[in-house]
Amino acid sequence: MNFVDLNGHILHEYDPNIKNINETLEIIKKASNIGIETIIETPNNVFLHKVESTEIQEKIDNLTSFLTELEINNMNLLLGSEINLDIQMPANISLGKTLTINSTKYLLIKFPYLGLPENFESTLSLLNIMGINPILLNLEKNNYIQKNPKIIFELIKENCLIQLSSSSLLNSSNENVRSFSQFLIKNQLVHTVSGFVNSQISDIEKNLEEIIDFIESSSNIHTVELLLYTNPNLIAYGNDPRTEIEIIKPTKIKSFFKYPIQKIPTLIEYFHWKLLSIIKYLKIQINNLKYRN
Q: Which of 29, 75, 233, 293 has the lowest tally of Cβ within 10 angstroms?
């Protein structure tokens, strides 16, 4: 079985637990040997405020050339980021301080463990208007959402994808987190499971076995492939994931979103963000031309 990790951490410059390039190459080699064929490097947005995205992409390109020399030819390395959910996200995206997965419409967004972020409904709705599809992380660890799982139905209705952290499915994980993760998988409220390629590479094979067993016991072998390969692979290249999720009809649940997507933003806001998105695109193209020259 092959795997795709949308939420990998392999560059030592952006992960304090990875000491040097040799450890990075060791992680990739081990991952390749057990069937992982694509890793999305996702530095936290803290690093993206310090360096240009082109600099990180250059490191990925250099790393790919190393793999060719080492005859690791069955591994694809792509670039993305993981960012904390806050009201500054739309502006940071427009300014090029946030990277979507492989320059597609998908963006990894971290939820907090406690409570709900301020104005998160309007922020997510605005991202939708900008053409960004949020992939939400850590929902299974959020204490408020554990007690109010209907929120997840609303998030999916608002065009969000749900990703479980692979660590949440391990035997060593918190019992409440594992239980809620199982509930989400059983009720087909998950699009992908990622985050297994990191500095803990020595345990990756054992961890993947635990993750596969957990998903299969919560659902079936088809779901294992869907969450660990099919959907992550589709998302990595900008395609819509396959889903068996049944969206609850509005009559069955009061909308959690205070501001429906149809009402925000105003036309002025819409064209404002569109203009910033166009400026971002042009800057990227100019930087690419400079890099090639």
A: 293
